[in-house]
Amino acid sequence: MRPVINSWLGPIHVALTLFRLPYSVCSKGACPIKSISTGVSCSAANLGAMSTRLHIKARSPVYPGSDTPRFPVPDDKVSWETEWPEYSPVKYTAPPVAANPVWADRDIGSFSPRFNALDGSTDRRSHEGEYRVHDQRPLNPRGRTGVSGRGLLGKWGPNHAADPIVTRWKMDEAGQRLSNSASKLPILQFVSIQRKDCGEWAIPGGMVDPGELVSLTLQREFSEEALNSLEMPDKAELHERITKLFSSPGLQVYKGYVDDPRNTDNAWMETVAVNFHDDSGDSVSALPLEAGDDAGHVSWIDVDSAQPLYASHSHFLETVAKERHAHW
Ligand code: BGC
């Protein structure tokens, strides 16, 4: 697939405010985007190019964590605009979701969610603009997936995540930047976790809690997954260092739908990905990495197109590399 950003909004510089305060974003000539918890997202016109792209991981043959095969959806039948009377998606809601944990919605019928709206503390608005609702169920803005219901996702409609991309330059022992021999461009490294659920390397992102500001989710998820903050004895010092990092100007590289293998016709992932870069190598680089929460391992990994990553994460990193004139 093509780079996420070139056809979309263009890089947006983000000024993240201090812990617990909303952040504001200014893009070149586009509307200001506020926190998804409190504000409105950019107009659908801005995101139009993104919504025409075909999702692929969301049509993987077998639904993750199960033996449930998806109803096969060929490329030309993905769009809801294409009539397809034979379409018969497999109904699947994973047992842990169907068991009604606090983080998940209940079945449609036992409650009436307000779609395309802030529904109590649950944000059911999409970054992609207004989505359709058919038969009381929200429809995936990128089209058919071969599975109906919620699968592994808790919310009907958009499930909001945030992805902190923490980067530094790769250095040799003398402190000189290392470049790739073919591209001759300096190599970036980012903090990556190996996810416990699928074993794939990923950005240490996570779900936005109900009512939580994205600026806080970025910091909290990074702390929990890459620094194991939940188990850290001296939390105060760590908290101060991390707050400083996440208060520095970030580069928002993506905001919108994610081609995630857990997506279904009625529930899907969306994210906001923001890059925090340690240009001098003396702030983030000194953080003691320790895998926690949903992470099996954590490590600085070279930013390189050959590195396979979870969901749409390599597209986010491609944008970071290009923006920072680094090797890809
Ligand atoms: C992950 C994020 C990812 C999002 C969409 C979340 O569960 O933590 O890193 O971007 O899903 O795939």
UniProtKB/TrEMBL annotation:
The keyword Signal applies. GO terms for molecular function: ADP-ribose diphosphatase activity. It catalyses: ADP-D-ribose + H2O = D-ribose 5-phosphate + AMP + 2 H(+). It comes from the Eukaryota. Residues 114-154 are annotated as: Disordered. Residues 1-27 form the signal peptide. It holds the Pfam family NUDIX. Residues 169-323 form the Nudix hydrolase domain. Residues 121-137 have a biased composition (Basic and acidic residues). Keywords: Signal. The keyword Signal applies. Monomer. Interacts with GLOD4. Hydrolyzes ADP-ribose (ADPR) to AMP and ribose 5'-phosphate. This is ADP-ribose pyrophosphatase, mitochondrial. It comes from Alosa alosa.
